[in-house]
Amino acid sequence: MYRFIRFLLLFLLTLLYSLGWTQVRGRITDSHGDALGAVTVSIQGTYIATSTNAEGFYEIKKLPSSSVSMVVQRLGFETKKILLVDIQQPHRLDVVLQEEAYDIEEVVVRSTVNPADNLIKKAIATRNKNAESRDKFEADFYSKGSLTAINLPKKILGAKLQDDNQLLDSTGSGMLYLSETVSHIVVDKPNKMKETIVASKISGENQGFSFNRAEGTAFDLYNNYISLGTTKIISPIADQAFSYYRYKLLASWKEEGQFIYKIQVEAKRKSEPVVEGVVYIVEDSWEVYGLDFVLLGTSINQPVLDTLFLRQQYTYNNSDRLWSKQLQTLDFTAGIMGLRFKGHFTHSFTNYKYVDQFDKGTFGRVSSEFNADANQKDTDYWEQMRKVPLIADEVKDYYRRDSLLLVTSSPAYIDSIDCLRSRFRIQDVLLGYRYQSTPNKLMIRYSSPLSLSRTLFNTVQGWNFKAGLSATKGDSDIGRYYQAGVLFNYGLADKKLYTTGNVLLRFNTTTYATLGLMGGSALKQFNPDNPIPAEFNTVYSLFWGDNFMKLYRDDFVKATYKQYVHPSLELATSLGYFKRSNVFNGTDYTFFSSNRPYTPNNPLDIGNTGVPAFVNHDLWKADLKAIIYFNTQIDKKPNRIDYNHDTRFPVLQLGYSSAFGTSYKGYSFQEVTLGLKQDVVFGNKGVLGYALSAGTFLNADGIAFTDFKHFNGNRTHIGTSSRYLSNFLLLPYYTHSTNKAYLELHSEHNFKGYLLNKIPGVNRLQLQTIVGYHLLSTDKRKPYQEFSVGLDNIGWGKYRLFRVDYVRSLHGTGSPDAVVVGVKLLNRQR
C-alpha cells in the first residue's frame, strides 16, 4: 500500500510539473483512433518543435507569440497545419492525421524514362550543394533511449541473468536501460563536432552519464556513405547509387509551396550494405524531406542485429530557407544465444543556427564535455526541457529503479549484501573465495589452484598449478585505484615454487598516471609477447609431443610508470633488475608413448646437445616508450577524461632500451625501435590495416638470447585473434630472432563482403574475403614473406566464430604452405 501511494504521488507530481511547463499539449492519432508515435509537431517557419511519444502524446513548452501556425507531420500521413490565435494556456489540442492519399497522376510524365530515376539524378547532382549549405551550424539536441529484454531466460550456460529485484515480468521481459540527454552541439562537417552535455539522466543511477549522445547520430544522406559504426552504407543518393538501388515514384504533393516526391528505394542485392524503404525529395532544391529505411543485420555482416529501422523527419525554416532534420528515430531488434532485445532511440534537433564560418578556436580536441552538474538535474528541469513526453512504462521504470536505488544504496542493504557475498564456506578452499567491502571500495580474491584453467603442463615443470591472492581498492572507472596481488606457481616435475607479486597505483583518470611495482621469481618465455598460449602448449605437448614453449627462470624486481603528458602523447618508462638462469626439461611424459621425444628447452639447441641457451647472468634494464596519436578526441566528464584515438590515422610508437650493469661481459646493449599502425577505410570496399615495426641494436654482438628481438610465429595452424597484424601465420617461433637491425610488416585487407556479396547463392553465406601480406627482414637473411587469402565471418546463423586462411610462405623453413583456422573465442589479439 505504501509503495502504491508513493507511485500515485510521483504520478501526480509529474502531471503537475507537465501542466506547469506546457503551453500546448495533446494526443495525435490516426483515423482509426490509434496513437501515432514519432510525429513532428512544430511552429511553422521556426525551429521550435517537439515529437510525440509511442502513446501519441506531445508537449510544446514555449510559443514564440500568442498567434502561431502549428504544423503536424509524419511520414506516411498528410501534413496538417493548425492556426492558433490568442489561445488560453495551457491549451489541449488533439489532432487526427489522415493517411497519405496523394495521386501519382499529379506528376506529369512525358517520356518512357522512369520519373523516379530523374528525380534521384537531380538529388545526386545537387547533393554536394545541399550538404555545403548545412555543413556549419549550432543546434540543441535531445535524446531518449531505451533497451528492452524480450523473454529473457533465467539462466544461460549456468549463469543467472534475471535479477532478484523483479524489474522484469514473469516472462523475462522488461526495460533494461532508459536514459535521456540534453546537449548543445556545434558542427563543422565533415569531421568537426563539439557537444556540450547539459543534462544526463539514467534510470536507477544517480552518478551515471548516458551514452546516447549526438556524436553517434550523424546518419547523413548527403554523404556518399551513411556511417553506422565502422560500417559504410551506400546512400540512396550517393554518386554510385544506381549500381545498388532501383527507384519507383509513389506519390507527390505540395507543401510550403514546393512539391514533395515520395520515392520507393529498393536494393538490387540485399546482401550488400544497403537500405530499403522510402525517401522524400523536395522539388527544385532537391533536399531531403524525410526518410523511412529498414536495414538488415545480414546486409552489414552483423548477425547479432536482426533489423534496424531509421526514420528522419525534416522541417522547413523561413529565415534559412532550408529543410533541416528535426526528428530521428532508431528502432532495432537483436539477439543471440536465446537473448532477445529491442531498442528505441529518439533524437530531436531544434534551434538551428547556420553560419558561414566559425571563429578560430571553436573546435579543439574536446569533442564532448559534460557540465559539472549534468547528472544532478531535478524533475523540474527535465519536465521543462524534455522534448518527447515519457510514456507510462518509462514513468514506471524511473519510479521503480530510482526507488530501488534508495534501498540498494542504503548502508544497511550494502552491509547485508557484502556479508552474503563474503560468507566463507569450506568448499571455497577448492573453488575460490571473494571478500567485499563496498563502503571501503575494497575487494579481496583468492584463486584456487584446482581450477581447470590453472592446471597446466610444460616440459620444465610437468604438471603445474597456480594459486593467487589479489586485492583492489578504489573505483576502477574513476579516480584513484590500487591493486595488489601475489601469484604462486608450483610444478610437480621440478618441485619448485615460483612466486611473483605486484602493486599497481593509478593516481587519477585525467592523465592516467600509473605506477607499477613487481618482483619475484617466474618462468618466462624467451619472447616476452608470449606467442605460445600455455593452454595450447599443454595440449600439443600431451597429445602430439610438441613442446613449442621455451622457458627460462627470471628472478627480478621492476618499477614502471606511464601517463598521458598530452592527449596525443603517452609516455611509459621502466627500470628493473633481472637475474636470468637456464632451466631444462624435467619430464618426458605424454599421453601417448608413440610421441617423439621432446625437443630441448633451449630454442637454439637443434641438435639436442644439452647446451644452455645463454650464460646465467644478472643485469639492469631501462626502457622508455612514447606513443604518438595523430588524431585524438577527448570525451570530458567531471571526474574522468576518455581519450578516443582514431585508428584511421597513424599511431607512431618510439622506443629506447638500455641494458647495463651486467654480470657477464658483453651482455650490455642498447635498442632503438619504431612502430607505425593504421586502418585505412575504403568506403564500402573494406578496411586495410597495417602494422610496421623496425629497430636496431647497438653494441649487441654478444648479448644473451633472452634479449634478442623475437617475432611472433605460429606452428599450431590455429589463429587466436580476429586480425593478424602482430604475428606471422607459419613462421617458426625463434628461427629469425636477431640482435641486429630488423624490419617487420603485417597487413591485411578485409573486403567486408564487397566481393562475395555480389555472387548469387554465395552472398547468403555472408562471408568476408581477406587478403594478407607479412614481411620480415633481418640481417644476413633473405626477407621472409607470407601471402594469405582467407574467408572470415564463417559460422551458422548468428554465430560467426571462425576464419580460415590459406597461407604461402617464401624463404622460410618447413612446409611452404598451410591452412590456418582462426577461432575468435580464443581472442588473444594484441
UniProtKB/TrEMBL annotation:
InterPro entries the record matches: CarboxyPept-like_regulatory (IPR008969), DUF5686 (IPR043741)
Name of protein: Carboxypeptidase-like regulatory domain-containing protein
Provenance organism: Sphingobacterium faecale
